[in-house]
């Protein structure tokens, strides 16, 4: 080919690619759709749709004068063509295998093992988890190591209300903690329906902490007052359901909705736990040859001693995910309005510890007609305080509250402690400060 001086030879991009890629006769350029074929349930394609097996139309028509399956590269064959009947199933299986094999996942990568002990003490309603050590953790930092720590959560439940955390061990894949984390106010019902989530994370100061792996233990597997040892392999968190899995799960969605609604209702009713100590002190006897000591002068006539020990897993009332809780007590009916007592405010916590006691001077016969109302509030500066929850103890109460009141009246002079579940509905009490 001769080209005049000063003129550029015009070559299309298709010709340029054909010359560079496959010197020789110029063939049609493959399209992107040739590499990603789309199938419909009603269409049948030839089994030679892959790029390596694509055939091009010949220059001469086949014998018989019929067309060669269409002039386009991806034209479908006629129903009677070769491979027309079983092609769909073959391509479907190919698509499935591609979808599975192309999944970018490290499920086969070892995340490490974790060793810990779990003990539930029924007498104190406390759950102890002793985090011992981990081995062979997945490297998370550039130096091939990690800065691991362990987090505990009780599921279902609010994350910040029941999160516990161990210390951080620097630059190791085989950390040793030997640290005991304790949950207070765990009832037997909680042991039956809750799950302990144990997560191992890597601490990063410049970025967000990274998740390594987790293990979940159904607390029903733990027998009261018997320590149970666990040595488990860390796992990835349960994946979210895919659209195809959701379509399959729709068959049992009604059961799931009912369970979810019951759990939501339970979480709305429970606003936390409160540890109370009740003690009825009978009138003190006169001491021989002297007056009553100063520390017992107030309690000399006898009465009810109410000890507010602590709260656990309170509902978060502030935007930071915490509360500033305090506790108020009333002995009703209160005609003279002198029975109000209030603890100190503990800032920014959902598990406050008060350890304060209040004394009500009252006779045993009068106490049988009284009701002790205990409420927990969130302190807010410059506006009304938020009601968190409360409990009412008296002869007209029910469940644990009634049993605690009866035990106090039966065992005079003895301190009786019990955990109570706070609810957002306390009869006979105003929720305004």
Write the layout of secondary structure elements.
Layout: H1 13-21, H2 32-35, H3 87-101, E1 113-121, E2 126-135, E3 148-155, E4 164-165, E5 176-184, H4 188-193, E6 195-202, E7 210-218, E8 228-233, H5 243-249, H6 253-269, E9 270-281, E10 303-312, E11 325-332, E12 341-342, E13 353-361, H7 364-367, E14 371-378, E15 386-394, H8 399-410, E16 416-423
Antiparallel strand pairs: 1-2, 1-8, 2-5, 3-4, 3-6, 6-7, 9-10, 9-16, 10-13, 11-12, 11-14, 14-15
- Broad shape: elongated
Number of strands: 16
Separation of the first and last Cα atoms? 98 Å
The profile of the biggest β sheet is: 4 strands, antiparallel
Helix proportion: 10-25%
Q: Please state the oligomeric state of the protein chains shown.
A: single chain
Number of helices: 8
Going by CATH, the architecture of the domain at 269-285 and 296-423 would be Sandwich
Quote the CATH topology of the domain at 269-285 and 296-423: Immunoglobulin-like
Question: Any low-confidence stretches, pLDDT <50, length ≥5?
Answer: 40-108, 286-290
Strand content: 25-35%
CATH superfamily of the domain at 269-285 and 296-423: C2 domain
What sequence of helices (H) and strands (E) makes up the elements? HHHEEEEEHEEEHHEEEEEHEEHE
Major beta sheet, strand line-up: 5-2-1-8
Average pLDDT taken over every residue: 74
Class based on secondary structure composition and strand pairing? alpha+beta
What would you report as the Rg, rounded to the nearest angstrom?
Answer: 37 Å
CATH class of the domain at 269-285 and 296-423: Mainly Beta
Could you describe the 3D structure shown?
- With 433 residues, this protein is an alpha+beta fold.
- Among the domains are: 121 residues, Immunoglobulin-like; 145 residues, C2 domain (Immunoglobulin-like, Sandwich), CATH 2.60.40.
- 17% of the residues lie in helices and 29% in strands.
- Strands 5-2-1-8 form a 4-stranded antiparallel sheet, with no helix packed on it. The protein has a 4-stranded antiparallel sheet with strand order 4-3-6-7. Strands 13-10-9-16 form a 4-stranded antiparallel sheet.
- The N and C termini lie far apart (98 Å).
């Amino acid at each position: 080919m001769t080209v005049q001086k000063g003129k550029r030879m015009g070559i299309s991009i298709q010709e340029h690619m054909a010359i560079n890629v496959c010197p020789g006769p110029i063939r049609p350029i493959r399209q992107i759709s040739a590499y990603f074929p789309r199938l419909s349930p009603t269409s049948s394609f030839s089994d030679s749709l892959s790029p390596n097996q694509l055939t091009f139309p010949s220059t001469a028509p086949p014998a018989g004068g019929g067309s060669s399956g269409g002039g386009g590269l991806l034209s479908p064959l006629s129903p009677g063509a070769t491979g027309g009947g079983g092609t769909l199933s073959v391509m479907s299986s190919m698509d499935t295998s591609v979808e599975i094999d192309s999944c970018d996942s490290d499920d086969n990568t070892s995340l490490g093992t974790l060793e810990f002990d779990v003990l539930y003490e029924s007498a104190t309603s406390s759950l102890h988890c002793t985090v011992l050590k981990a081995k062979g953790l997945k490297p998370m930092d550039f130096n091939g190591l990690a800065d691991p720590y362990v987090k505990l959560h009780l599921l279902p439940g609010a994350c910040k209300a029941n999160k516990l955390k161990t210390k951080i061990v620097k630059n190791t894949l085989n950390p040793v903690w030997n640290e005991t984390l304790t949950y207070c106010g765990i009832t037997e019902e909680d042991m039956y329906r809750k799950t302990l989530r144990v997560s191992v994370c890597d601490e990063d100061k410049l970025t967000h902490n990274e998740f390594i792996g987790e293990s979940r233990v159904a607390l029903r597997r733990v027998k009261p007052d018997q320590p149970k040892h666990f040595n488990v392999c860390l796992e990835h968190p349960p994946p979210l359901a895919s659209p195809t899995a959701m379509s399959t799960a729709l068959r049992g969605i009604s059961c799931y909705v009912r369970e979810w609604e019951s759990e939501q209702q339970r979480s709305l009713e429970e606003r936390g736990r409160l540890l109370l100590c009740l003690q009825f002190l009978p009138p003190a006897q006169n001491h021989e040859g002297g007056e009553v000591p100063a520390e017992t002068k107030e309690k000399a006539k006898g009465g009810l001693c109410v000890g507010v020990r602590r709260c656990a897993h309170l509902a978060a009332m502030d935007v930071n995910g915490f509360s500033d809780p305090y506790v108020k007590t009333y002995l009703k009916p209160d005609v003279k309005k002198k029975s109000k007592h209030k603890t100190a405010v503990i800032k920014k916590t959902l598990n406050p510890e008060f350890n304060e006691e209040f004394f009500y001077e009252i006779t045993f016969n009068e106490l049988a007609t009284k009701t002790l109302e205990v409420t927990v509030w969130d302190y807010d500066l410059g506006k009304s305080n938020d009601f968190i929850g409360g409990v009412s103890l008296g002869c007209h109460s029910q469940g644990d509250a009634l049993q605690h009141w009866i035990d106090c009246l039966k065992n005079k002079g003895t301190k009786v402690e019990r955990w109570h579940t706070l609810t957002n509905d306390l009869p006979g009490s105003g929720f305004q400060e």
